[in-house]
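Hi R.,

Here's the input for the adenosine-5'-triphosphate complex you asked about:
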Amino acid sequence: MTTEFAPPVLELRKATKVYAGVPAIEEVDFSLRSGEIHAIVGENGAGKSTMTKVMAGVVNLSSGEMLVDGHNVSPKTPNDALRIGIAMVFQETSLVPTMTVAQNLFLGQERYFNRLRGIYIEAQQFMQSLQFDVDPTAVVSLLGAAKKQMVEIARAVLHNAKVIIFDEPTASLTPEEKKYFFDLVLDLKKRGVSIIFISHALEEALLVSDRITILRDGKRVVTDDKDTFDRARIVKEMVGRDLSQTHYGQRKTTVRQQGKRVLSVQNLRMAAMVKNNSLSVFAGQVTGVFGLVGSGRTETFKVVAGIIKRDFMHGGEILLNDRPVRYLVPAPAVRDGVAYVTEDRKLEGFFETKSIAGNIYLGLLAKLRGKRDLVSRREEGESGEHWIKRLNIRAISKDVKAIELSGGNQQKVVISKSLIQDPELIIFDEPTRGVDVGAIAEIHQLINQLADEGKAVVVISSYLPEIMSLSDRILVQRMGKVVEEFSSPEATEEKIMYAAIH
Ligand SMILES: Nc1ncnc2c1ncn2[C@@H]1O[C@H](COP(=O)(O)OP(=O)(O)OP(=O)(O)O)[C@@H](O)[C@H]1O
Ligand SMILES: [Mg+2]
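And here is the predicted structure with adenosine-5'-triphosphate in place:
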């Protein structure tokens, strides 16, 4: 139980962080009670990551103060923060990808150097004590999102963290992994750990937290007990207006006319992931693709777009406008009008140190490669301005580096980079992951607009309401192939789920 009168474990007073003259957070007061789960919500760019990075020593305050157990502290590095008991699990993982699980766990500790073999046994026992099913000898880059997260959590527990901060921990987890994650968080709470947890999934915040803090434009709007909130109140406080009209989950009532067949996949086979998969995608429609993780959705469409690096395709045929194609790299697919908007923006989406405009322009250059090699600064600037406006990317200017954007706005850059190629077939893989409710509405509107313009649009999503509200037809994949197809009026969540599981 949390006690209201115990001193807060962690406190911010008038915390302000300014980037290039613009405050990312401004005079924020925040307190974390001992043993509580405290959710932080807010739109993309509201300052959630910045506020917690301050606590974790990643970012230093411009003004204001931070207290731990009533004492003034100012951790300058994540290691400083860890020494005073604060650990952060980042939006993008901070593990060393080329090292093993055990090496990551004991990184920076002396015994790491002394007993290289011993650490594996120790790590094994430690992971077991947490009931984490992760092989300590596995190289981190080969682990899935959930396992990487377990390693990060294990590392925090190993360092006796009394505060653990999670920045969008569930964004890349499957529904089963999410459930497991929440059990874990409740278990950490039982161990006396205080938890801060950032999420765009408001249902999650309502489910697990004790209290909720809402940020808007870098300022704290409210902190209150979970029970005083419902979804509508959270959304309203987040955006400062009533969004209930636009937020998604509404059933789609009309179906667009099916245009020509743009893509046809026949009996595609690929390693263990795709098994005789056949499907078609038509112009002028949104085709939703649903399936549990491991159902081969992403793999199928990555092969179509030439994104899968090695040639994993073992058989079958891919036809683009009735012409057989087989792309081993993305460039020729892009030139033929196929765009794949990635779910993994960090890995495949953009260059961190390039500007917004520069990143978007790269999309155009990729399309024109060979035809025209001239790079025009003016064209880059103009197209940057255009897409910033069209997708409502929140940044001070087109010259801001991608790494300086909030997560949701980075996602919009990734989308722009593909749309500037004016593709005929656009594959969106989890297009609204990590994107706030307002921006979800904007991206959905854009997807609808593309289909209205006659494009063939594919939306791969693990979130049923998203599939339901966007799709004209819905394909359900299970164990490597499409097992069921619905036109949107006949689909229900139950039918889709049933097809995905049974
Ligand atoms: N390194 C940086 N340099 C300049 N500006 C930055 C930097 N990091 C963040 N910002 C700016 O600070 C503001 C708050 O960003 P922050 O990442 O904290 O938002 P967020 O609430 O976590 O958003 P999201 O939900 O999209 O992750 C944004 O306007 C962002 O562009
Ligand atoms: Mg963030």
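One thing worth noting: Residues 256-337+423-502 form a domain with the Rossmann fold fold (CATH 3.40.50.300).

Cheers,
M.
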